[in-house]
Design goal:
Blueprint lengths: L11 H4 L6 E5 L5 H9 L4 E6 L2 H13 L5 E5 L2 H8 L5 E7 L19 H8 E11 L2 H12 L4 E4 L3 H4 L4 H8 L5 E7 L1
Parallel strand pairs: 1-2, 1-4, 2-3, 4-5
Antiparallel strand pairs: 5-7, 6-7
The chain binds S-adenosylmethionine.
């Protein structure tokens, strides 16, 4: 999808045929999760954000094959998208599944979920909107838990089973290797 500007917030009415609740996946990868979830929820609009072109092309191909009018992909850096392009209070959900863990200590500053993230997410979410997280990295999960616990404007909740049941590409791979994965969800108050 071509953006009219990458310095002004998106005009959602230009991207989608219908004004429906918006959900965003940051770092959507090959987008199996997003395509399946968008197929199951024609009453919602979805944007997949991904920095790798080849992966975004897969989203595009899968979405077209499934005839989805409610799915768009944008090739851009996730935190830039969240900070500058996603209109304030516009998203009913942010899905962040298996973000790069940056396991080396000196690289941890590259992690998407850091102490600034809850405020950014809160600004992007509509009232009652939810951040859904999954990771296989226990250290990163602890960091996620700590930064969200420090935010009084987001409250921990259970991930609904119908959502947890739709696995992502990386999750399928972890499951097949017997690697344990973790998940959490936080609702904007
Ligand atoms: C480990 S993969 C997980 C993909 C997918 N969520 C899944 O669970 O199958 C992380 C994905 O995030 C993308 N990514 C990493 N950092 C990013 C960033 N800062 N902005 C946008 N995409 C990013 C990577 O290219 C990769 O496709």
């Amino acid at each position: 999808m071509e953006l009219r500007s990458i310095v002004e917030p998106l005009v959602l009415a230009e991207l989608f045929l219908k004004p429906l609740p918006l959900e965003v996946e940051l770092g959507c990868g090959d987008a199996s999760f997003l395509v399946e979830f968008a197929r199951q929820h024609p009453g919602r609009n979805f944007i997949g954000v991904e920095r790798l072109l080849g992966r975004l092309q897969k989203l595009d191909r899968k979405g077209r094959r499934a005839g989805l009018a409610n799915l768009r992909g944008i090739r851009i850096e996730s935190s830039y998208f969240l900070r500058y392009l996603l209109p304030p209070n516009s998203a009913s959900a942010l899905h962040i599944y298996f973000p790069d863990p940056w396991p080396k200590k000196k690289h941890r500053r590259h992690r998407l979920i850091n102490e600034s993230f809850p405020a950014l997410a809160r600004a992007a979410l509509a009232p009652g909107g939810v951040v859904y997280l999954r990771t296989d990295d226990t250290d990163y999960f602890q960091q996620m838990t700590e930064v969200f616990a420090a935010s009084s404007e987001l409250q921990k909740m259970e991930t609904p089973q119908e959502l947890a049941g739709i696995v992502t590409d990386f999750e399928r791979d972890f499951n097949s290797k017997g690697i344990h994965t973790l998940r959490a969800a936080y609702r904007s108050l």
